[in-house]
Specification:
Blueprint lengths: L2 H11 L4 E2 L2 H6 L13 E3 L4 H14 L3 E4 L16 E4 L6 E5 L4 E4 L5 H9 L3 E2 L12 H7 L6 H4 L6 E7 L5 E5 L11 H5 L8 E8 L1 E2 L3 E9 L2 H12 L7 E6 H7 L13 E9 L1 H16 L4 E5 L3 H12 L1 H4 L6 E8 L5 H15 L3 E6 L4 E8 L4 H20 L18 H4 L2 H14 L17
Parallel strand pairs: 2-4, 3-4
Antiparallel strand pairs: 1-2, 5-6, 6-10, 7-11, 8-9, 8-10, 12-14, 12-15, 13-14, 13-17, 16-18, 17-18
Helix pairs in contact: 1-3, 8-13, 13-14
């Protein structure tokens, strides 16, 4: 990108909103995956028209453009793998409208997920997707990765709540998809095409979101067990017993250990795993489900059920749960953080496999996550500066992916493919499917300037 291009970008976004300072570039060179690629410039557009003007410029000069939210992704999806321009969407952060009567919100991509949840709560509504980084991740980033979270077991993931959007194509054309109505079948479902596309097909500049009535009541339970196998098997048993939790989270003994200091009442000695379960709805339904849950758990050997007595206790449990990922660095300086998903009945097999991998490779491997929908986070702890540990860690990752697919699962439950999972795409998708996706990419982005190098294996990029 030569100085002429930089000046033209600066003219579009305004003085002070385009930078090439090296210290600024470093701030936009990485995400949660830890891979570092320095962009040549960073721009901060404030409107769809500015995004469109930049994309017309990119099409003319052929430089890469990488849209970016808060950079909380875990697979390298928002890093500028081939240089070029990072388009930071933090200025496009308006909640344009909350239509309480029709239970929708219209937002720009830079809106913080947690801020939206607070805003709609004032209208007696809620936006269910709740990734662990909700206090700082953005709606646009959530849409690009199709983020989930603990509530997905009952309510679904981001794609289930985006009913329409506006996006800018590589050409600079502005397209709209979906509607603000519950029903709408006018043409192809382009909304779903853009959700989860990781900024490779277009840059989302506005979203129409479905909201739900705020549940009247909620109860929280902590289930501890001295048996890892029984705990993981219990997940499917709960869901097949006419119990519908809004949260069903799982932690193994190592995950518990790294957050024990955040709990005023740590789990009893010998605890091998725990489940964090929440029920919500009207009070009568929740009371009925509570009785059913407690009856089921009372018959389970090796299990103890604690019913949270206060909001402070609930907040403490959630603080511990959301602290697992950063707390793992107390075990090792680095980690390979993966999220696979398997059918719920195969969770025990997946967890048993990770235990076997850990013993065989001599690495600490912990599992936790959204057991209710089979989405398990697997953290492989290691020192990447030790070549032998790194080799074993990469071997563990490869074998984990192959096992997840063998169990009828998927490479990614909510983190996307990005850079880190791209080499493994063919484990899950056949050649014809990958070619169709690449053809769609080429149709919408013939010069391959939108977030190039992502999703597809490098040899097929």
């Amino acid at each position: 990108m030569n100085p002429i291009i930089i000046k033209k970008i600066a003219a579009i976004v305004g003085p002070g909103f385009c930078t090439t300072r090296r210290e600024d570039l470093h701030c936009y060179s990485f995400d949660g995956a830890g891979k570092i690629f320095l962009p040549e410039a960073v721009a901060f557009p404030a409107a769809t028209t500015e995004v469109a003007a930049i994309m017309r410029l990119a099409s003319e000069y052929g430089f890469p453009v990488v849209p970016r939210g808060a950079g909380t992704g875990m697979t390298g999806g928002s890093v500028p793998a081939r240089g070029g321009l990072v388009l930071a969407l933090s200025r496009m952060n308006r909640i344009v409208e909350i239509d309480a009567a029709n239970q929708i919100a219209i937002v720009e991509p830079g809106v913080i997920t947690g801020d939206l949840q607070k805003a709609v709560r004032q209208f007696g509504l809620f936006y269910p997707p709740d990734p662990a980084s909700l206090k700082f991740c953005t709606i646009g980033g959530n849409a690009a990765e199709c983020a989930g979270g603990p509530s997905a077991v009952k309510y679904g993931v981001t794609k289930d709540f985006v009913i329409g959007l506006e996006a800018v194509l590589a050409s600079g054309d502005i397209v709209t998809a979906g509607t603000r109505t519950e029903k709408g079948v006018t043409g192809y479902d382009l909304t779903r095409l853009f959700i989860g596309s990781e900024g490779t097909l277009g840059i989302i500049t506005r979203l129409i979101l479905r909201l739900l009535p705020l549940p009247e009541h909620k109860e929280t339970f902590l289930v501890t067990s001295t048996s890892l196998a029984r705990t993981t098997a219990l997940v499917a048993k709960i869901l097949n017993s006419n119990i519908r939790p809004c949260t069903l989270e799982y932690m193994d003994r190592t995950a518990i250990r790294v957050v024990t200091d955040r709990l005023s009442a740590p789990p009893p000695p010998g605890t091998e795993a725990l489940l964090l379960i929440e029920l919500d709805g009207d009070r009568q339904t929740v009371d009925h489900q509570t009785v059913r849950l407690k009856t089921l758990l009372a018959a389970e050997p090796d299990c103890r059920c604690h019913h949270a007595a206060s909001q402070a206790e609930v907040d403490e449990l959630w603080q511990a749960r959301r602290s697992i990922s950063p707390a793992t660095f107390n075990l090792s300086p680095h980690k390979i953080s993966e999220d696979v998903a398997v059918p719920r009945t195969r969770i025990p097999d997946l967890v048993a496999f990770t235990e076997q991998l850990s013993a065989e490779l001599g690495l600490t491997i912990l599992t936790f996550g959204h057991a209710g929908d089979g989405n398990i986070h697997v953290n492989i702890m290691l020192d990447k500066d030790d070549p032998e540990q790194l080799r074993r860690g990469e071997s563990a990752k490869d074998r984990l992916f192959r096992q997840a697919i063998a169990l009828g699962g998927t490479l990614s439950g909510e983190h996307g493919i990005g850079l880190s999972k791209a080499p493994f795409l063919s484990l899950e998708l056949n050649e014809a499917t990958i070619k169709l996706m690449q053809d769609l990419k080429h149709l919408l982005d013939p010069q391959n300037i939108l977030n190039p190098g992502k999703i597809f294996p490098q040899k097929n990029a």
